[in-house]
C-alpha cells in the first residue's frame, strides 16, 4: 500500500502542473534498468543518480536498521498465521523487479486516470509504458492471479520528491494481502454470505473510478454483506494492533482514523502515540472487490495494509536523517543488531558535521511562469550533480519583474556530508557545477 508515510492520499495536496521544463531523460535511445534495455521516449525521466541505488538491497543486509524491521514484521506474520500443521501460510516476496507498467502501478489499483500521482513530476518513468514502482502494491493483482491468498511484498519504491531530512527518492515498503473464501470466512456459520443477494459480479466493472466518485462510505462496499466486512475488519485491526505492540511495546496507545485509498473501502490509518505526539504508522482497508474480480477470484473478500520502513526506523531508532540508511560507515552500521531489537536501540551520532548553504537564483525563460517550473526536475539535477551530500533544497523566493514581466526563482541548497566535514571550497565547486547544469538544462539565466 501507499503511504502518507507512503500514502497515496498525500497527493491530494498536489495539483497537476503544466510541465514545460526540459526533460531530465538521458540523451540516448535506450536505457538499462535492472539489467534490461528499454527504449527511451519523451516520458523517460530516470536519472543516473536514481539508477545508482538499484541492486543495493539495503533492506536485506543483516543488522541494517531497515532489515531489522523487515525481519520483525515478517517473523510476526509467520508466527501469527499458521496452518493446522504449524507451518506459516504467508508467502514473502522480497526480490521482485521494480520496473512495472502504468497498468500495474495505477489502473489495476483503480487509481483515477486524472490522478496527480501518475504525472512525470511525481514518478520515475523508464518510458511511456514502464516506470519504477511508486509502491509495492503494484504487484498485488499479479500475485493474486498466481493463486496466492496470503502474502507480503518487501521492496524499494521510487518517488520524485522534495529534498530534506525525511524525504528521499528511493525508500522501502512492506505490503500485505490476506483473502478469505466464503467457506473459510464463514466455516462456523455456513448460512452467511460475503455478497449481498442482489449483487452480480461483472468483469467489466474493473475500471478506475473518477476523482469525483471517491468511495468514501466507511461502512462497506455496496457488494459486501455487513457480516463479512465486520469479520474482516476485526481480524485486520486485531492483527495490526498486535503488530504495533510488537514494534513499539505492549502498552503503546493507539487509535484508528478513517481514510481513503482508491484500492480499499472502507479504509483506515493506524496511529500510535509516541513521545508526545500521534504518529501515523500505516494505511489499511478492505480490498475493493473490483480488484479481486479482475484477478479471477470469486466469492472472496480480502484486507490489505502497507507500511514504510524508513519512517518507522527513524522513529524507533531515533535516526535523524534519511540519508543515513545508505551510509556504508561502520560507525553507523555497527550500532544495530537484530538480536537487540526491543532493547531501546538508539542511533548515536558518529559526529556532527557543519552545514554549508548556498543560494541559486535564476530568471526563467520568457514564456514560463513560476508555477510552470517543476521543482522535482530541479531536485533531480541537484541529486545527479551532488549526490547524497545535499541535505535540503528549498524554494525561498519567487519574483516577477513589474516592468519586464520576467519571473525568477531562488533555491537554497544546504550541503552536509554524513561522514566528514565539507569545506566551503568543496561546496562552492559542487554548487558551480549545479549552476552550470541548471542553466543549460532549463534554459534559464543565472541572476
Account of the protein in words:
By secondary structure, the chain is an alpha+beta fold. It has two domains: 8-316, 2-Layer Sandwich (BirA Bifunctional Protein, domain 2), CATH 3.30.930; 356-446, Ferrodoxin-fold anticodon-binding domain (Alpha-Beta Plaits). 24% of the residues lie in helices and 25% in strands. It has a seven-stranded mixed beta sheet with strand order 3-7-8-12-11-10-9. A hairpin with a 2-residue loop joins strand 1 and strand 2 (36-39). 37% of the residues are buried. Residues 1-26 and 203-213 have low confidence and may be disordered.
Primary descriptors:
24% helix; single chain; globular; 2 domains; four-stranded antiparallel beta sheet; 447 residues; disordered N terminus; Alpha-Beta Plaits; BirA Bifunctional Protein, domain 2; seven-stranded mixed beta sheet; alpha+beta
List the uncertain runs. 1-26, 203-213
Spatially, the strands of the biggest sheet line up as 3-7-8-12-11-10-9
Mean pLDDT across residues:
89
CA radius of gyration is: 23 Å
CATH T-level topology of the largest domain: BirA Bifunctional Protein, domain 2
Q: What is the approximate shape? A: globular
GO biological process, one term: phenylalanyl-tRNA aminoacylation
Keywords: Aminoacyl-tRNA synthetase, ATP-binding, Ligase, Mitochondrion, Nucleotide-binding, Protein biosynthesis, Transit peptide
Catalytic activity: tRNA(Phe) + L-phenylalanine + ATP = L-phenylalanyl-tRNA(Phe) + AMP + diphosphate + H(+)
Protein name: phenylalanine--tRNA ligase
